[in-house]
Amino acid sequence: MSEDKFTSDVVIGLEIHVELNTKTKLFCSCPREVVDGEEPNSRCCPVCLGLPGSKPVLNKKAVEYALKLCIALKCDISPKLIFSRKSYFYPDMAKNYQITQYEIPLGNGGELKLSSGKRVKLKRAHMEEDPAALVHIGDMQKSPSVLVDYNRSGNPLVEVVTDPDITSADEARDFMKQLITILEYLEIFDINKCIIKADANISVKESGYVRAEIKNITGFKEIERALNYEIERQKHDVKEGRKFIVETRGWDSEKGITFPMRAKESEEDYGYIIDPDLVVTEIGKDWIKDMEKEMPELADAKLKKFLDEHGIEETTANVLAKDKKLADIYEAVIKKVDHSLASKWIRRELPRVLHYNKKSLEESGIKAEHMIALLKLIQDGKITEKVGQRLIEKLCVMVFDVASYVKKEGLEVVADVEKIEKFCEEAIKEAPKAIEEYKAGKEKALNFVVGLVMKKSRGKARPGVVMEVLKKLLG
Ligand code: ZN
Ligand code: MN
């Protein structure tokens, strides 16, 4: 795109590398996933070490995952899968070339919808192998030496490239967030175990849109920080009268700054050639149809259903639809529990206890069956919401059979009026000041007394009933 076509003050294009959640690497059978406590260079073979004479064999699962992503992003899918060699010299690539796609990407065009409704156009989505990891001892810029770990080398990536359609750091963050939602729905990516990295091209009007490419930004919080920094830096440098060149910059997350790495190389510098070791893979219509059949309902469709069919309040529907795990558990729970009770608890209480215990849903072990048991007790009036909150807090520490625990611990609602009256009488005696205020016409003062009764009943009395009893006792 020529510079005079830009209309916004800030112009951003993203190249996002997504690691696919396959069992093995892209061209060999080495395991892809990091093993706890693994040694550097322990998950490699002649292929991913790039030893002479070794031959790559394409991982079919990785292609299927990439196809699903292309379908979700509405790309035109190429009928042939062709890999090329991108030649460069760098210690992270022992072959001195990266196997990637250049001439014909797997997916052409496409789009991704932001939460604002704006559609960001995509240039392409292609497959490639991840290079090795360079390990700097201490400070990246000052480290006297660099180590190479090939465990990551050969991991399957899809690179999603956008048009320069993005106009703020905030939009870039949202783009990445929406992409992650799609990846999680497709179950081709695990946020805790897969890498997602962005390179961002960014320029500002003040410089005449001379762009810098910021490399290797990880995660959506980082991308917003890096881009906000870079926008200010570019504007500041224009004011200072510095000369602008097209350059590649690094992002130092610890210091929160970008720094110059090198003058930007152009595509021609890479001397792409088609990789003769890999045969052309035909992507027939039937294969695409099979993938389409396996496509899950995506977040957009879920949101529409939650709003139109379930009648859930909009913010809640959005939170549930954007998080596949919450959406799944919600949809399982509403088979037995009222929509509004289920949505309220799965949006608020469940994330609250997970966050407090710093656990993911899987780590907590909480499943739909636990939520159903808990919410049915509330729905049937057998326990109060207060007791329910205590139960979900306990569940998050260690799961148990909810119904029998409630029985065993005697957590059912106190329906016994005599018992409630006894608690009320005690509370009235303990709170003379509040009673005085209430009698002087301050209705709200009674809430304090209700709180006392709730405490005495260990949350098992219904606040409404307590209020009634108190009013009766106070005449
Ligand atoms: Zn290998
Ligand atoms: Mn790439």
Structural notes for this entry:
The protein has 475 residues and is α+β, with helices and mostly antiparallel strands. Helix content is 40%, strand content 18%. The protein folds into three domains: 287 residues, no CATH class; 113 residues, no CATH class; 57 residues, Arc Repressor Mutant, subunit A. The longest helix is centred in the middle third of the chain and has 20 residues. The protein starts with 9 loop residues before the first strand and ends with a helix. The mean pLDDT is 93. The chain binds zinc ion and manganese (II) ion.
Could you provide a short overview of the structure?
The protein has 3 domains: 3-289, no CATH class; 297-409, no CATH class; 417-473, Arc Repressor Mutant, subunit A, CATH 1.10.10.410. Helix content is 40%, strand content 18%.
Helix/strand layout:
Layout (H helix, E strand, L loop, with lengths): L9 E10 L40 H13 L3 E2 L2 E2 L2 E4 L9 E4 L6 E2 L2 E3 L5 E11 L3 E4 L9 E4 L6 E7 L6 H18 L9 E9 L7 E7 L1 H20 L7 E6 L4 E7 L9 E2 L6 E2 L2 H10 L4 H10 L5 H9 L1 H10 L5 H19 L3 H4 L3 H12 L5 H13 L4 H8 L7 H14 L1 H8 L5 H12 L6 H11 L2
Parallel strand pairs: 13-14
Antiparallel strand pairs: 1-11, 1-12, 2-6, 3-17, 4-5, 4-16, 6-8, 7-8, 8-11, 9-10, 12-13, 14-15
Helix pairs in contact: 1-4, 2-3, 5-6, 6-7, 6-8, 7-8, 7-10, 8-11, 10-11, 13-15, 13-16, 14-15, 15-16
Bound molecules: zinc ion and manganese (II) ion.
The site of manganese (II) ion has 3 residues, from loops.
